[in-house]
Amino acid sequence: MASVVVEHLTKIFQGPKGRRVVAVDDLSLSIAERELLVLVGPSGCGKTTTLRLIAGLEEPTSGTIGIDGRVVNRVLPKDREVAMVFQHPALYPHLTAYENMAFGLKLRRCPKAEIERRVEAAARILGLSDCLDRRPMELSGGQRQRVAVGRALVRRPKVFLFDEPLSNLDAPMRAHMRAEIAQLHARLGATMIYVTHDQAEAMALGDRIAVIREGVLQQVAAPTKIYQHPANLFVAGFIGFPGMSFFEGTLSAEEKTLCFKATPPRAGEPAGLALPLDQAAAAKLGNYIGQKVILGLRPENVRRCQPDAPAAWTLEAVVQTVEPMGAETCLRLAAAANPFLARVPATESAGAGEKIRIAFDMCRAHFFDPITQRAIE
């Protein structure tokens, strides 16, 4: 297996009427040997283009791509020792699963006995041993995608590249295949770069996650760190489901502590949302007194009021909509014209239009600079 290092990678396409389209913008990223790194972001953010640049299917406008310590910008895709699994399996319909998996090895004039050994070994790993004589039309969607993975696996590449391989599967099959890819990575100890727009998939699979927006790397870190310490407003809103709630407001000093006061949604209305900060947040926000900030709270940090909740962190809210999610329920609430989300146990749910008492866990609040949109640390 090999490490992958991209430095100042940029890709610019020529759009209609000569317009420049920056797909990847000065991206620098290191993927360690045997690491599974997930590139995640909204559609059109440049994550697939980045993968194609590493594979050699696109030529970078500038920057370098290194695989196993060797710059490969001028190396042909077939000589980069990478294998790519695409969104669509793209299997030859007239060939069996065995023949599809063996096809690349035959082109490389690999001995027949070696081909058989590699294909059968890959089939055992992927649970395809009973399907090798079937053609793609006789396979399920999950089996076809496993054949595509097997086709990459038999090549024994230094780096595996996955381009949204599960997006065309239904939810139960996606969950099953996600677990299989995680098990495959653990078994092979392979270097893998995985592209997805599904942040839940990224959180479940990645050793680290790289969040990309409009071709620019926003943050790269372990899943728990990205969730608990987002670098900016975009990452905070993109990672996590249901999403983080945001409140615009100002900080004021009151009775030896700092207080966040939400800006009224409409001019002339009183600011009904006022929340004192905990000591840790107050210590790092001392320079923002009198300035505008953005407060972020994840839905699980907004609960129905419990007896031990600090009174200053509680308020009355109106339930706007109720979204049952099985063991939990997502409540869309409003207080003083400020909309926000709460994730509560199903036993603590409420009806639409009902007024309930809500407690904010300000010890887990996030604060962002409204101008730079960076997290205030």
Overview of the molecule:
- By secondary structure, the chain is of the alpha+beta class.
- The two termini are about 35 Å apart.
- Strand 4 and strand 5 form a beta hairpin.
- It has helices at about 45-55, 95-105, 110-125, 140-155, 170-190, 200-205, 225-230, 235-240, 280-285, and strands at about 5-15, 20-30, 35-40, 60-65, 70, 80-85, 160-165, 190-195, 210-215, 215-220, 245-255, 255-260, 275, 290-295, 300-305, 315-325, 330-335, 340-345, 355-360, 365-370.
- It folds into 2 domains: about 5-240, P-loop containing nucleotide triphosphate hydrolases (Rossmann fold), CATH 3.40.50; about 245-370, Nucleic acid-binding proteins (OB fold (Dihydrolipoamide Acetyltransferase, E2P), Beta Barrel).
Which key phrases capture this entry?
OB fold (Dihydrolipoamide Acetyltransferase, E2P), 24% helix, 377 residues, alpha+beta, Rossmann fold
User: Could you say which structural class the secondary elements and strand pairing correspond to?
Assistant: alpha+beta
Number of helices: 9
Number of strands: 20
Beta fraction of the residues? 25-35%
Query: Over all CA atoms, what is the radius of gyration?
Result: 25 Å
Largest pleated sheet:
6 strands, mixed
Mean pLDDT: 91
Instruction: Tell me the distance between the termini.
Output: 37 Å
> In percent, how helical is the residue content?
10-25%
- The CATH topology of the largest domain corresponds to Rossmann fold
